[in-house]
Structures are given as structure tokens and as C-alpha cells.
Amino acid sequence: MLNKTPLWKTLLVIFVITIGALYASPNLYGEDPAVQVSGLRGVEVDASTLDQIKSQLDENNIETMSVALEDGQVLARFKDTENQLKARDLLDDTYGRDYSVALNLTPATPDWLAAVGGTPMKLGLDLSGGVSFLMEVNMKEAVNKAQTGLVGDFRSELRGEKIRYRSVKADGDAVKVIFRNVEDIEKAEDFLSKQNRDLLFTIDEDALTLKATMTEQKQKEIREYALQQNITIIRNRVNELGVAEPLVQRQGQKHIVIELPGVQDTAKAKEILNATATIEFRMVDSDNDISNALDGRVPASSQLLYERNGTPVLLKKRIMLTGDHIVDANSGFDEYSRPQVNITLDSPGGSKFSNATKDNIGKPMATVFIEYKGTDRKDAEGNMIFEKVEEVISVATIQARLGKSFRITGAGSQQEAHNLALLLRAGALIAPIQIVEERTVGPSLGAENIKLGFQAIVGGFALVFIFMMIYYRAFGVVANLALGANLIMIVGVMSMIPGATLTLPGMAGIVLTVGMAVDANVLIFERIREELRSGKSVQQSIHQGYDAAFSTILDANITTLIAAFILFAVGTGPIKGFAVTLSIGIITSMFTAIVGTRTVVNAVWGGKRLDKLSI
Amino acid sequence: MQILKLNETVAFMRIRKPAMILSIIVMLAAIASLATNKLNFGLDFTGGVKVEVGFEQAADLKKMREVLDANGFDDAVVQLFGTSRDVVIRMGERPNVKAEMLGNEILDILKEGMGVNVEMRRIEFVGASVGGELTEQGGLAMLTALICILVYVAFRFEWRFAVGSVFALFHDVLLTLGLFSVLQIEFDLTVLAAILAVIGYSLNDTIVVSDRIRENFRKVREGGPEEIINISLTQTLSRTFITSITTLLVLAALFFKGGALIHGFATALLFGVFVGTYSSIYIASSVALAFGISKEDLIPEVIEKEGADQEEMMP
């Protein structure tokens, strides 16, 4: 019999739409104000932190809906924002030093929905309010710095090998060494090329010069490293900001995107992102008694600092070396598989350090991390006051005279060694970064954008609904059902895909899909009308209509998809949001407008003897 | 219900020459406007700083300008945005101020100088280098889209249709750009997105028409290419109308309800849908006809299956 849908297909349609509706439903529940506490720099949140926070909130009579450990952070939910703010202030006082305490809105998705992975759609910054930055890494500077390093390396390497040279200097993107005679050039080339396998050496015997250029591969490595290092540092700084769900992500070859939802004070955020951190190596003052210093009698040449765990350390004021000489630092294991941090210095740093350490073998040396942190206080002119925070991050005994590369052992756990290496690198930015783009949306504008977008969707929907019902009567109702199902599917799929965010242009994309999704039905219905006019039977016409329209719909939608994909590839932020909703809308509309309506049409009209059709 | 009752075939192609001339004239006008008026590029492309502030009462623009003048921001452009309570301030980068701090500075000056509550709604800062890159990327995106579509249509249909549809797309994009140039509406990223959506929509239309032409070339035994194109256009006219109406309806909702931020987007699409409908009839089809599309190019009637069209293209 013509126009009968097999049972499995009907069930499939019902199943798919139900799944869509299920995952769309978390959007119906609102959000609870919450405070989240997460560890900074390797400090972990555990069950004991949770208990402490719970009892502290109870003691201060702050009403909570729930306090729980979720994904390595403590999340406390509140009934209202008043309690939320009180709790934030309280927790920030207690935990602000080692933990990030941030305000957040957590979805109030019921447990059974959350258990199957249901979450509401992520809102873009233009809807939720907040700030997004695009930072650019100065890659020229990164390569320059490496080149300057090479100049120093060549000098000391040649001197070490007792090869005489006239000069070593940077020349364009190469390093040029001028010699006194040809013999030395060959000796130098022989030696240097063994030391530096990632360089290309060319000899010009007439000019008595040896030229070393970095291979493309090497330059790429430098750039890649500079980008990665900056991302690591920025992640650290962003964590200090106390923002719930921040995003730090690379974009292309030299850009980093930072999204900070809910942040209002962009001036503070910028200061912190642009802040500088440095490292200093200083000797521990073991000549004086630390208990005297703790009583307030600190010798004039020394300074009292603290380790993160609160242990006081008395340090000499003289700085042996600053962090800008650090070329690289990474964590690994020593021969007894104990964690260690390997540090590489540049040439001038190496000789400075070697001089400074030769008389101090056997004595303890401290590494100090200095950071300028923005505070909430402002000075008379309204500028933010920066606090210089000095912290001893490691104390180690000098075992031998240290040179260009050395290691720090006894850093504790592997995680601690990793963090130490990270901090050491943070003290030595290879390439400066700069904010090249900022987009800040205030909370009121965000809320207004949601309202406007929602109104546009409802308005567009209503108009199309009415039109279709008048124009195609019963079949119009079927098309409207499909349209409604399509909207649910779009929202459902958007909620399911973790990377998809809803933006204002994205909402416009939904509106547009509403208009275009009916096109499939219009094509089918017009075709059915044509077949009816040409005298075919009702069942024949329905069958032919769907069949003939199918390939047209497919072609038309695939080409639109091509445009959407290109938009996705080149677009950023809100535009990407538009591309995402448009693509999802096209795909779901094909399902609802073709398979969905066919199922309904077949169920209502299929397989019966009919003389007329309400179309 | 039916809006169009067509029993006779409409001779669309009879006026294809005048229509073509009209199209060329309008396109030349668009080019002329683009060359002289240029596009009013938004912040996304030019770089600079934009601050949107909200007031509780109608904004006092004169006072705002005075306050900004007094603080050395005499080059700032101050305009109402959407409502009388929203104001947008736009300016370029300046040498001795860190560009990324400019927005905050303006906000502070206004908060201090205006004497009323000033609410920060939006700060945008785009570095000049980023803007330049974006212009390049945007152009590239448009070009890539056109080429990909050309390849797809050539693969699915026939090269004459592909050339016709790309001509039509070029026509739509050019006219939309021309409109933005003539009216000097700000051209920002969302408008670029809208233009790509116009490409998608216009193509949708062109494909539907081409599909029917191909079908009729295979099915209708008598009549020359022009006659068959006319038949196909008449058959699809009803659908073209209805889809355009529904799309225009939702776009009208977007235009009137979507707020000031989405205005440019809605304008580009409203106009694009309009010219897109025209171009699928008078550009795409008549270009294919001008290139000499004939029955022989499409005749091998095989039952629809994957790859059937591919073979036709091969010599």
C-alpha cells in the first residue's frame, strides 16, 4: 500500500525527537547563584576542604542549597545572590591566598537530567556579559631573543675552544662571525655545527665570515614555544582573577583568546593580564639567627620572606641572578627517579651565575617568585594599587659551581617540580604579549540581547506559523509541527555539543533557519499540488511530491552548508555562533521537514482512498 | 489557498535581454558607489575603540561632547544607538595612550563629567593590525565560498549552471555591498556573516530552479531551451514566492524586534533575499542559456543514482 510508514521508522522519528526534547529541557530550568572554590598552583581541593567550607558557612549562618565537590572544586549553591555574595567575601578572606574563589551561576538542572548528561546551552559573552580579549604574541621578539642568545653562545663557545674571532654579531635573521684567517673559520664551523645541529652554516672565505641561520624548523619551534609559554602564564594569571569558567585558548599561529564571563572590571583584568612576574636567585642568610629576625631584628643586608607553606626564610638582599636570564625550565627525574627541575640559562646568565655560586658551594640558595598582583584598592587618582608579592618557591643547597644549565632537586612531588618549572618559566617571558582586541559586554546589554533575540524568534515563528496554516491548511499544520520539532532539535543539539555556544548572531541564525526550514515543506507541498493538478490520485501525488522534491532539497541544503562551514572556519566568537546554529538548523530541518512530516502525513492520510486533500 | 494561479507558461526569458541590461547597469552603479563612497567599515575592520553607554534618561549628547572635548577627546564620534538612552562613542587609536586602556578611560571620564548615572554597556577595542587581517580573511572567505560552490554545482549539475549560479551570487553580493555603500550603513562582522548567508539563500533558490530545468530537459520532449527554462521557472515560481515570503517575514521580525546590534545583519539579509530571488531567475538561468545550455548536455536519462551526473561531465 502506498504511503505507509513502517513502524520502525515511526518509532525512530519519535525517538529522535524525544531525545532532542530531553536534551533541550535543561534550558527550561533556571540557574542558581553559586560560589566555586578551586585550588591555585597545584593546591588541591579535597574532602577536608569541603568539610571546612561547609562548617564555616554553617557557623556564619549562611543558608546554602548544597555544598559539593565537583570536578576538583567545591561548589556551593545558594537561594539568592545576597547569601552568595556574603559567602564569597567570607570564603575569599579565608581561602583567597591559595584558592580561587569565584562567583558563578550553575544550572539548576534536576539530578536525573544531569545524570544523563543534560546541560543547558552555553551562552556567548554577548548574551551572558563579560569580556573577551585577543592577545598577540610578539613573535619577532621571540626570534630576536633566540638570536641574541646565539650571539652570546657563540662567543663563549669559541672562547672555550680557543678559536680566535674578530666579532660575533646579529645580521638580519642570521648570526655573523668574522675571523682573522681561513683556518679558524673551518675549525669554528666544524665545532659550532656539532654544537648547534638546528642551524645552517655557510662560509664566505673571501670575507672571512661564517654565517649561521636558523632553520625554518627551528624558528617554528621558537614561535611555538613562545606561544605555549604565554598560554601557560596567562592561564595562571586568569586563575588568580577568580572567574568561573574562564577560557584561554590559542587561535592560529600567534594569538591567544581569553574569555572571562561575568567580569565587569575590565581595567583590573587587563592590568593583571599585562602584569609581569620575575624570578630572583638569592642566597639564604645562614649567618644570622632566623628567630631574631622573626622577633623583628632583621639584619640590614637581609630580608625575611616566607615559603608558601608559611615557613620563614631569611635571605640576603643581594640578587645573584634574575629570571630574565632563564631560557628554559622543565621538570623531569634524576638518576634516583626523584623529581627535579632542569634550568637552562643564557650565556651571560651562565657566567654570572657561575661566578656567584663558586664561593657558595654547600650553602643553601633560594628561588624567589615576585609578582605584582592587582588589588581592589585604588590610590588617590583612582589607579589600581599593585601589591608586590614575594614568595620563596624553593630552597636548595648548591652542590657545585653552577653554569649555563643546572638542576634543582628535592622539589618534593612531581607535581611540585612541574609547578616550580612553570613558575620559573613565568619569570622569563620569551616574547612579550599585547592585547589587540577587546570586547566587553555589560550584564544589562547581555540580558537585553537575550530578550531581543527571544522576541525575534517568537515573532518570526508566529508569523510563519500563521502564514503556513492559512496557505496550506491541514498540511500547513503538519509543516508547523515540523518547525516546532526543528526548534526543539536545534536547542537540544546545541545543548548536547560541548563546544557550541549561543550568541546573538546565533539567535539570528535560528530565526533564519525558521524561514528557510519551511522551504523544504513548501517545495514538497507545491510539488504535491502540481501532481494533483496533473490529475494523479491523492496517494500518487503525495508519493511523487516527496520523491521529486528530495534531491532538490538535498542539493539546496548542501550548498548552504558549504557557506556555513566556511563561515565557521574563518569566523570568530559571535560569527562562529551563527555558523554553528545555521549548520545545525539545516541538518535538523532536513530531518524534521522531510522524514518528520512524511511520517505524520502518512499516518493521517496515507493508505486511504481519498478524493481531496487539504493542501 | 493559492496566491499565484498560473495556467499559462510565463515567458520569463523573453525579457532576458532588457533584464540583463538592467542588472548590468545596477551592478555598475554599485561598483561606482563602492569606488567613490567606499564602505563604511565598522570597528572590526578599521580598528579603534568603541564604547556604548546607557543612561536612565534621554542622553545629553551635547554635554557628552563637551565633556569629551574638555578631556582631549575632540575626535570622538558620539552617536545615539537604537534608543535615545543609548550612546555609542567611537574613536581611533592615539599615540600616547595604551590603546587597550582607552575604553576604560573614556568610561571614567564620562562617569565623572556627566553628573548622572552612566552605565557601561559595551567596550570594544580592535587593534589596527587585527582589523587589516580581518579584511583580508573576510575577502578570502567570500572567495573560498564562491569557489567551493562553483565546484559543487559543476559536479552535481553542469558547468553552465555552475557559471550561471556563481554569476548570480556575484550579482547578489555586489548589490548588497552597493546598498551598504550608498546608504553608508556600518559594515561589520555580522554584516559579513549576513552576506555569506545571502550566498547560501540565493544559491538555494538557484539550485531549485536549476534542478527543475534539468528535470524538464529530460522529461519535456518538445520545445527549445528557452521554452523549457520558461516552463521550469513557471513551475517553480509559486515555491519561489512562498519561500521568499516566509523568509522575509522572519527577517522582518528580526529587523523590528532584534535590536540595534542586529540591524545591519537584518538589512543585508532582507535586501539579499530580494535580489537573490530576482537573480536566480534572470541571472542564473539566462547566463546558463547564454552559454548555450541544451538538451544534449543533460539528456542521458538514467534513473537517479549517485554518480550519474558525474559521468555526464566526463568527455
From TrEMBL, chain A:
Domain of life: Bacteria
Gene3D superfamilies noted in UniProt: 3.30.1360.200, 3.30.70.260, 3.30.70.3400, Multidrug efflux transporter AcrB transmembrane domain
Domain named SecD export protein N-terminal TM: residues: 2-103
One function term, GO molecular function aspect: protein-transporting ATPase activity
Membrane topology recorded in Swiss-Prot or TrEMBL: Multi-pass membrane protein
Domain (Protein translocase subunit SecDF P1): residue spans on this chain: 227-285
A biological process term (GO) from this entry: intracellular protein transmembrane transport
Xref: InterPro entries: SecD, SecD-TM, SecD/SecF_arch_bac, SecD_1st, SecD_SecF_C, SecD_SecF_C_bact, SecDF_P1_head
Keywords linked to the UniProt accession: Cell membrane, Membrane, Protein transport, Translocation, Transmembrane, Transmembrane helix, Transport
Domain SecDF P1 head subdomain span(s) in chain numbering: 303-431
Membrane-spanning parts: 452-471, 478-497, 503-525, 546-570, 582-605
GO CC term (a single one): plasma membrane
Domain Protein export membrane protein SecD/SecF C-terminal: 433-594
Subunit (UniProt): Forms a complex with SecF. Part of the essential Sec protein translocation apparatus which comprises SecA, SecYEG and auxiliary proteins SecDF-YajC and YidC.
Family: Belongs to the SecD/SecF family. SecD subfamily.
Xref: NCBIfam families: 2A0604s01, secD
Listed name of the protein: Protein translocase subunit SecD
Gene source species: Thalassotalea algicola
UniProtKB/TrEMBL annotation, chain B:
GO biological process: intracellular protein transmembrane transport; protein targeting; protein transport by the Sec complex
Keyword Membrane appears in the UniProt entry: yes
Keywords: Cell membrane, Membrane, Protein transport, Translocation, Transmembrane, Transmembrane helix, Transport
InterPro entries: SecD/SecF_arch_bac (IPR022813), SecD/SecF_bac (IPR022645), SecD/SecF_CS (IPR022646), SecD_SecF_C (IPR048634), SecD_SecF_C_bact (IPR055344), SecF_bac (IPR005665)
Origin: domain of life: Bacteria
Membrane topology type: Multi-pass membrane protein
Record's subcellular location: Cell membrane
Xref: Gene3D superfamilies: Multidrug efflux transporter AcrB transmembrane domain
Stored SUPFAM superfamilies: Multidrug efflux transporter AcrB transmembrane domain
Entries under Pfam families matching the protein: Sec_GG, SecD_SecF_C
Residues passing through the membrane, by range: 20-36, 138-155, 162-183, 189-209, 241-262, 268-291
Cellular component, GO annotation: plasma membrane
HAMAP family in the record: SecF_B
Family assignment from sequence similarity: Belongs to the SecD/SecF family. SecF subfamily.
Assembly information from the UniProt record: Forms a complex with SecD. Part of the essential Sec protein translocation apparatus which comprises SecA, SecYEG and auxiliary proteins SecDF-YajC and YidC.
Record's protein name: Protein-export membrane protein SecF
